[in-house]
Amino acid sequence: MASSGVAVERRSRTLVLTLGNGPANTISPALRRALLREIETADCSAIVLAARGTTFSSALPLEPDHATPRLADLCTAIAEARVPVVAALHGLVMGAGAELALAATARIASPGCRIALPEIALGLCPEAGTSRRLPTLVGSVAALRLLLTGRAVGADEALGLGLLGAVVDGPLLDEAIALAEALADSPRAPRPVEPAATWQAAIAGARRAYPRALPAVGRIIDCVEAALLLPPEAAQAFEAVTREDLEKTPEAAGLCAAVKAERRAAALPPAVARAGASFTDRIALSGRGQGLGVLARAAVAKGMAVVWLQPEPEASAADGQLPSGPLLRIVADPAALAGIPFQVHANLANADLSSRATPGTAVLVLGGAEGEMGLSIAPSGRACELSVLAEEAPDAIATAVAVLRRLGLPPLLVGQRPILGERVSAAGMAVLLHLSSRGVSPRRLGAALVPFGAVVPQSLQGGVPDPAAPPPDMTAVQIRDRWLAAMANEGLRLLDLGIARRPSDVDHAMVAGHGFPRWRGGPMHQADQRGLLVLRHDLRLWAEESPLWSPAPLLDRLIQDGLRLSALDR
Fold first, then answer.
1. In the 8-state DSSP scheme, what is residue 458?
2. Beta-strand (E) ranges in 266-352?
3. Which of 101, 321, 471, 559 has the fewest C-beta atoms under 10 angstroms from its C-beta?
């Protein structure tokens, strides 16, 4: 394997170029240069693009990449190569890897292959001609659907759409070489052209379906329309300018920050990553609590048995906590929980902590407790916080993480108590209560927070303002700035306390669990975008009005050291 990440091999009349830039086979500038050089100087009848590892190419473009040659240059060279180019696809084919494959003359894949163009999830559009090539392969309606949803399609669906020419069970590389040489021996047939009226109708339908979407949606539709109306070179230039414009938008910055935060949250500490999780097909619950009901229902839905130490099963059934079915067993004897590697107790008093003596057994306390592993389920029901202590056994943490991920509740590891999202949300709510007490109407508060997905609670609807304080004349931006600053300030306090491990964990907790819009990135991302000096100035000013905004000590230290919040993400 060359240092560029491309292996070059001659097989009969075919040149095989194999990506080996693992683990995701990133289409890096060095790899692009190597591929471009081989394609432009190839002395062969056909070319096959293949890849080593478990995936063809699955890297996401989380940072702008304007190094030469550009991805568009490489894809143009593949599309215009004097010999046929066949892409042999396996595993995940995503982003730049998918654009590379779409530029090829033909594509074949192994059965487990999945193809995705997820740029929309990052607030971006394709960059290498895909908005022009994809409609010619699958039709304008299917192309817009793939580009505007970003969802991955399996091999069989891709075959039906026309993304793939074949799905092969045999040796993928041998089949790709055979197809490449067959194409070399026969003239290329022109591809049928979709009627312009059909194409234009698909564009109009997409615009009706997404009237108030984020900028990337409308711009992708514009690119597909440009592919219909403009010559290929002009359509390519239009897509390139659109991509650069979108890379500069706050929406793309927020979405990319959210993806990075999600990845950091999923990365386990080295000791935990090395530890062996205890396999289990059942969980143990003890006591009563809404979180236990969430866990029970999630476990039953995943086919896991639930043993629940429940003193009042009739009452729990009446309030909807208990799922139905044979996988749930209600017990009255605490001994029934013995030997189950994953246990969650409603409170510390009822927890049988002797179970922790068994290696790999995770004993969690709902809501947390001093010196114990704690668990809280986020309001979204799609994430949770898992508090861990340095002295706890890594294998127990590994077991807890594995089970929670299986339940569809990927955990965010926090320190001391699982209260990160709760504390940050409460800081924002305290600001709303304060502003309401000063006479800012719930209607104005609600209108200000709509762009951030927040809803003013019913408790404020009947609030009585302080008659001694005249209602402030505040704009929506001023309301949002105070709300966001309070949450970022609380995040700084949680970092100082060791509850949050990094600023992006605060953002991930809010986005995954507390309804903060993903495209806004999170309160810490928002603070970094405005600047910490601005944040400190605002907090000091507003602290004269209320201690709600008293600056966290960490803020001064960061400014003194010339650091941004993102510098603490590791």
1. G
2. 282-286, 305-309, 328-331, 342-345
3. 471
> Cβ distance 210 to 118 under 8 Å?
no
Contact call for residues 116 and 92 (beta carbons, < 8 A): yes
Based on the domain organization, do 173 and 299 belong to the same domain? no
CB 211 within 8 A of CB 204: no
CATH number for position 286: 3.40.50.720
For 239, the token pair is 């897509």
The residues with which 413 forms a beta bridge, in sequence order, are 386
- 303-330: per-residue pLDDT in tens? 999 999 987 655 454 345 567 778 899 9
Q: What is the mean pLDDT of the chain?
A: 91
DSSP 8-class letter at 505: H
Amino acid in the structure at residue 551: P
- Cα 209 from Cα 27, distance rounded (Å): 33
328-331 vs 342-345, strand pairing mode: unpaired
Q: Which of 400, 415, 430 is the last residue of a domain?
A: 415
Which residues lie below 8 Å from residue 72, measured CB to CB, with a gap of 6+? 127, 128, 129, 236, 240
Summarised one tens digit per residue, pLDDT across range 116-143 is 999 999 999 999 999 999 999 999 999 9
Instruction: Collect all residues with Cβ–Cβ distance below 8 Å to 445 and sequence separation of at least 6.
Output: 432, 435, 436, 456, 460, 479
Q: How far is CA 88 from CA 94, 159, 341, 515, 564, in A?
A: 14, 14, 43, 41, 43
Question: Closest Cα to residue 328, out of 351, 302, 298, 296?
Answer: 296
**Do the beta carbons of residue 40 and residue 15 sit within 8 Å?**
no
How far, in Å, CA of 156 to CA of 167, rounded? 7
Distance CA 162, CA 133 (A): 12
Mark whether 241 and 218 lie in a shared domain: yes
Give the sheet arrangement for strand 14-19, strand by strand.
6-11, 14-19, 46-51, 85-89, 106-109, 166-167
CB-side neighbour CA atoms (13 Å) of 216: 28
**φ, ψ at 10 (rounded to 5°):** -100, 120
95, 197: one domain:
yes
Domain for residue 265, yes or no? no
Q: Tell me the average pLDDT across 476-493.
A: 97
Q: Residue 106, SS3?
A: strand
Cβ burial, residue 354 (10 Å; 0-12/13-18/19+): exposed
Terminal-to-terminal C-alpha distance of the chain: 30
DSSP β-bridge partners for residue 384 = 377, 411
Task: Give a yes or no: residue 260 inside a domain.
Answer: no
Q: Write out the residue range of the structural domain in which residue 544 sits.
A: 421-568
**Given strand 92-94, what is the order of strands in its sheet?**
92-94, 114-116, 153-154
> What is the rounded CA–CA span in Å between residue 39 and residue 311?
71
Cβ burial, residue 462 (10 Å; 0-12/13-18/19+): exposed
The count of structural domains within the chain is 3
Could you tell me the sign of the dihedral formed by the alpha carbons of 502, 505, 506, 507, in that order?
A: positive
Q: What percent of the chain has pLDDT over 70?
A: 93
Q: What average pLDDT score do residues 544-551 get? A: 95
For residues 426 and 564, state if they share a domain: yes
CA angle, residues 382, 517, 375, in degrees to nearest 5: 30
**Residue 332 sits in the same domain as residue 448:** no
